Amino acid sequence: MTGNYTIHEPFARMSKRAEALPGWKAWGIRIIGLVLSLVVCAIVIMAIVNMSPLKVYGAMFEGAFGSVKRSWVTVRDAMTMLCIAVGLAPAFKMKFWNIGAEGQILVGGIATAACMLYFKNLPAPILFLVMILASLAAGAVWGLVPGVFKAKWNTNETLFTLMMNYIAIQLTSYCVALWENPFGSNTVGLINQGDMTGWLPNMFSSGYNKDFGWNVVLVMVLAVGMYLYLSKSKHGYEISVIGDSENTARYAGIRVNRVYVRTMALSGAICGFAGFIAVSGASHTISTSTAGGRGFTAIIVAWLAQFNTVVMVIFSFLIVFLQKGAVQIASQYGLNENVSSIITGIILFFLLGSEFFVNYSVKFRGKKVHQ
Amino acid sequence: MDKIIALFQSAVTFGTVIMFGAMGEIVTEKSGHLNLGVPGIMYLGAISSLLVAFAYERGGGTSPVVGVLLSLLACFLGAALGGLIYAFLTITLRANQNVTGLTLTIFGSGVANFFGGSLNKLAGGVGQISVAVTSSGFRANIPALANLGAVGKLFLSYGFLAYVAIIMAIVMRYFLNRTRTGLNLRAVGENPGTADAAGINVTRYKYLATCIGAGISGLGGLFYTMDHIKGTWANAGAIEALGWLAVALVIFASWKPLNTIWGAYLFGILTWIYFYIPGLTRSSQELFKMLPYIVTLVVLITVSLRKNQENQPPAGLGLSYFREER
C-alpha cells in the first residue's frame, strides 16, 4: 500500500456489555436518566406556564404532600399502582405480555361493587371476605382466558389481553347503566353512601380515606409475599426459567402450559384485587375510569423495577408523585390535568432509553491514520 | 332502507378512521416492530392538525383548500415525530417494543388532551374550539353525486379522505407484494439477519417504516377530528379506543392491506349496529358495543388454530435486531 489513507469507522459503535454492570453503576445510569427527564419536564412545564423550574417542583411537592389529606391520597394511589404492578410481575417475568391489567382491575372492581350492592346485609368481616374473594375470582377468570389460549394454541397474548380490556370496559358501562344512581345520571354514585357498608375503614381513626389505612397493609403484604414467591419458591423458579427460555424450561421437564395457566390466573387475581382496593378502599364507586390507565402505567412500573416487587414501591411512589404534582400545577394555572400524562411519558421515555446504556457500551471513533 | 343507508354511512366514516390507523401499523409491523403506540400516534396526528388549522383560521385564513393542506402536513409530521421517538428508542436503543409503545400512547394522549383541553385558555379565551373552514374542506363532497339516490348516499357522499384510504390500501398491497422496496421491507420484518446479509440497510428500513407508518396512522386521528366530529375536540378518550381497534384490525386483516377495507367497514357496522336495533335498553346497548372486540378475539383464536402460513404475523415481530448478537 502506498500513501496515507483513513479508515472510516462509524461515528459511534455499540456493543453488548460482556458482563453485567455492577448494581451501583446500573442504578447510577438510571438515576442520570431520571434527572435528565426531570430537567426536560421542567423545561416543558416552563414553556407552557412560564414558571421557574424550582417552583415547579416545589408546587409538585405541594400537590402530592401539601396536606395530610393529600399525602394520604398520594400514598393510597401509590399503593393501588403497586398492587397492579405486583400482579403483573409474575406474568411479565415469564415474558407473558399481560397488557390486560386494565380489564382485570375493572372486573375485580365490578365484582366488589356487586357484592357491596347485593350482600350489604352480611356482617362486615364476612362481607369483606366475600368482596375480596369475588374480586380475586373475577380477575383470575379474566387472566385465565388468555392464559389458556396461549398455553393450548399459542394465541398472541398481547393482543388477546388488549381485547379483553375493551370487553371489560363495555361490561363496566353495562353495569353502570344497570346500577345507575340517581337515575339518569349515568354514574353509580357513591355506593352505600348512607351507611358506608363495604367501605374499607381507616386503621387508626374513624371514618374513611383519612389515614394510612388497610390499603397499605394489604398491598405491602402482597408485595413482600410476591417477592418471596418469585425469588424463593419452586413456582417462582419455574417462572423465571420460562422467562429466560421456553425451550430450556421444556427440556428441564417444566410443564410450561400448566405454568402459563397458573401464573396468569395468579396475575389476573391480584389485578382483580387491585380493583377491590380501588373500589372499596378508595373511590367507593365504579366507572369505566376506575382503572384509569393505571393498568398500563403499572406495566412500566413493573418493567423498570425489573420485576423486583420491593423496587416497585419506589417507582410507584415516583410515578404517583409526578402525576399528583402535575395535576397541582395544571390546576394552579387553570390548565387541564393531562399534563400529568405528558410528564409520565417523558420520564418513561428517558428511563427506557437509559436501559440501553446499562446493557450496552458505546465507543466513539478516534481517527486512525494508517501508513 | 334509510336506516341501512345511515348505518352504512356511519360505518364508513368510523371505518376510515381505523383503516388509516391499521394501514400505518401494517407498514410498521412489516418491518418487525409491533408499535402499541398507535392510539398515541393517532392522538398526535389529530391534535397537530387541529392546532395548525386553528392557528390558520384565527389568523384570518378562509380557504378550505389551504386549511386542508396545512392540517394534512401538520398531522403527518406530528404523527411521524411520535413514530420517530418510538423508532429511536426501539431501533437504536433497543428498548422493549411493547413498553415503549404503551408509553407513547400515554404520552401522545397526554399531549393531545392537554392541548385540546387547554387550547381555549392558552389562546386567551376564544370560546368554542372549532375549525369550521378546514373541516368543511375535509367533508366536502360533490352534491350532484352525493344525491344520486341510494347509490350516491352509499358510495359517493363522503369526504375525500375516505377514498384516499381505499386507494392507499390498494397501493400498499402493490407496494408490499410487487416492488423491490416493499419486498425488502418484508424481508426485514421476517428475518432481519438474513436481510442484513443480503445487503439491505435494516436500520434505515426500520426507521422509515416506523415513521411513515406513524404518519399514515396519524391520518386516522385527523379524519376523526376533522370529519367525524367536524373540527372540534372531544375529550373522552374516544381516539384511544379507536387506536386499539386499529391494532385489532391489523390482526383481523391478517397483515394484508386490502383486507383492512372491508374489515374496517365491518368494524364500523358492528360498532354502530346497536343504534339501529330496536328495543335495546341503554345497558344492553353497552353489551352490543363489545362486538368488534369479540369478533377480533375470534379471529385471533382462529388464526392461531389454523396456523396457516399465509396469515401469520411477520416472523421477526417484536424482536430487537442487533447485528452482533446473531
Helix fraction of chain B, binned, reads: over 70%
Poorly predicted residue ranges of chain A: none
CATH second-level architecture of chain A: Orthogonal Bundle
Largest beta sheet of chain A: what is the strand line-up?
A: 1-4
Spans where pLDDT lies below 50 across 5 or more residues of chain B: none
Q: Please report the two chains with the greatest interface, counting residues with C-beta closer than 8 angstroms to the partner's C-beta.
A: A-B, 52 and 55 residues
Shape of chain A: globular
Number of helices of chain A: 13
SSE order of chain B, one letter for each helix or strand: HHHHHHHHHHHHHHH
Structural class of chain B: mainly alpha
What is the overall pLDDT average of chain B?
Answer: 86
Describe the structure.
The complex is a heterodimer of chains A (371) and B (326). By secondary structure, chain A is mostly helical. In chain A, 69% of the residues lie in helices and 4% in strands. Chain A has helices at 23-49, 53-65, 68-93, 101-118, 124-153, 157-179, 214-232, 234-244, 246-251, 256-283, 294-304, 309-332, 339-359, and strands spanning 5-6, 12-16, 360-364, 369-370. Chain A starts with a strand and ends with a strand. Chain B is mainly α and 326 residues long. Helix content of chain B is 75%, strand content 0%. Chain B is globular. The N and C termini of chain B lie far apart (60 Å).
Topology of this protein?
The complex is a heterodimer of chains A (371) and B (326).
Chain A lengths: L4 E2 L5 E5 L6 H27 L3 H13 L2 H26 L7 H18 L5 H30 L3 H23 L34 H19 L1 H11 L1 H6 L4 H28 L10 H11 L4 H24 L6 H21 E5 L4 E2 L1
Antiparallel strand pairs in A: 1-4, 2-3
Helix pairs in contact in A: 1-2, 1-13, 2-12, 3-7, 3-8, 3-10, 3-11, 3-12, 4-5, 4-6, 4-10, 4-11, 5-6, 5-10, 7-8, 8-10, 11-12, 12-13
Chain B lengths: L1 H29 L7 H21 L5 H29 L4 H26 L9 H8 L3 H4 L2 H7 L4 H19 L1 H11 L1 H6 L4 H27 L9 H15 L4 H20 L5 H7 L2 H16 L20
